[in-house]
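Renewal narrative, Specific Aim 1. Our central claim is that a sequence can be written position by position from structural information alone. The example that follows is taken directly from our test logs and has not been curated for this report. It begins with the structure tokens describing the chain, in the order in which they were read.
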């Protein structure tokens, strides 16, 4: 049986394992900043021509980190990957390593707050021209992408408004002018990812989210071709210091063993909660791309079997109702994270997206009554009961 024919769950457990001379079963954690050489000539040779299993410094690479990178690249379907200190280190590293003053970037405007900051403020400060559009509108992409466009950036499922973009169509338009396509795939999850299938050049994750999935440590990763990853991206990140720590890489490498089980269960819970809340009188909407009421339901299902582990609800009576609802929750924790083993509720307008100007919030679907609900691994019946009892208190 060829390893190339292994299913995803098998690859999540075994792919890329590097065993030491001791033959350990569990992947080893190498906590070291640097590496030693037998001779000065060996050190010189390592710096001149570093092999795949040769390491210089933990900021450049590490055996534990390399196992994590290899496994993530394999399940995503890409040639290579570079692990970073956080999801935003991955997003900023991907963009800043490939763009320079005078370049043009087109981006969807429905972005996580920190992603919006990079696109709308940091890149223009360094001379990159950015055009932000309604990513759902293919005509807007067609008009914005120019012959000199160098890259496009978008979230495959937007955070927190859960907008879905026709990824194949955007990739086709971008590649027609030679532009790279960079996708933040965090909400989609590695299990339900369709980035490589659609032709995306770089798939970026906050591995803090589903990969760790248990609220322990930060991480990020950029997956793509070996040419891009071991070229400009590695060069930028290793010299600017955004590489992941070996310990965090080890934690998240071990988390991959249960990723498929966790994410599929959370997605099933998300769908069950949507069905239980449909038509509730306190809600203006219940949104989950895989659920029938989502305006882009058919597009979402044409791209993936499920749309992640997060739903949103919009309470009719705005912020006051949202706060009363949040404070009445018993199983859900109030936090600004998502994709944890614990169910988490977030009010974006006062936390993760508080810096989005009030007048611009309607453009990206942000309302005062919007609450993001991240499904945990508690019993689905308890999750549903908790949401219902909190809504009943309104």
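The sequence written for that structure reads:
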């Amino acid at each position: 049986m060829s390893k190339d024919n292994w299913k995803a769950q098998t690859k999540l457990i075994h792919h890329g394992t590097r065993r030491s001379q001791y033959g350990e079963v569990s992947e080893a954690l190498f906590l070291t900043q640097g590496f030693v050489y037998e001779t000065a000539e060996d050190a010189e040779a390592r710096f001149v021509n570093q092999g795949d299993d040769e390491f210089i410094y933990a900021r450049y690479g590490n055996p534990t980190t390399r196992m994590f990178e290899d496994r993530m690249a394999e399940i995503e379907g890409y040639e290579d990957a570079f692990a970073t200190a956080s999801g935003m280190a991955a997003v900023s590293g991907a963009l800043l390593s490939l763009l320079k003053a005078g370049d043009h970037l087109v981006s969807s405007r429905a972005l996580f707050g920190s992603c919006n900051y990079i696109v709308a403020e940091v890149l223009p400060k360094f001379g990159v021209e950015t055009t932000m559009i309604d990513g759902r509108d293919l005509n807007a992409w067609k008009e914005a992408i120019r012959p000199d466009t160098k890259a496009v950036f978008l979230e495959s499922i937007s955070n927190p408004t859960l907008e879905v973009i026709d990824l194949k169509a955007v990739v086709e338009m971008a590649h027609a002018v030679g532009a790279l396509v960079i996708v933040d795939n965090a909400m989609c999850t590695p299990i339900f990812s369709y980035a490589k299938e659609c032709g995306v050049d770089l798939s970026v994750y906050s591995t803090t989210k589903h990969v760790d999935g248990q609220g322990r440590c930060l991480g990020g990763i950029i997956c793509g071709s070996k040419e891009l990853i071991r070229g400009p991206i590695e060069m930028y990140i290793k010299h600017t210091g955004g590489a992941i720590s070996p310990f965090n890489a080890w934690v998240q490498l071990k988390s991959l063993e249960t990723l498929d089980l966790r994410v599929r269960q959370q997605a099933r819970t998300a769908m069950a909660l949507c069905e239980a809340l449909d038509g509730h009188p306190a809600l203006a909407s219940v949104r989950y791309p895989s659920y029938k009421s989502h305006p882009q339901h058919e597009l979402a299902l044409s791209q993936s079997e499920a749309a992640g582990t997060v739903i949103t609800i919009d309470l009719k009576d705005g912020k006051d109702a949202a706060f009363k609802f949040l404070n009445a929750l018993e199983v859900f924790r109030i936090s600004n994270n998502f994709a944890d083993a614990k169910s988490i509720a977030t009010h974006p307008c006062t936390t993760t997206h508080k810096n989005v100007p009030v007048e611009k919030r309607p453009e990206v679907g942000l309302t005062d009554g919007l609450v993001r609900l991240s499904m945990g691994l508690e019993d689905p019946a308890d999750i549903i009961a908790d949401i219902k009892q909190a809504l009943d208190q309104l």
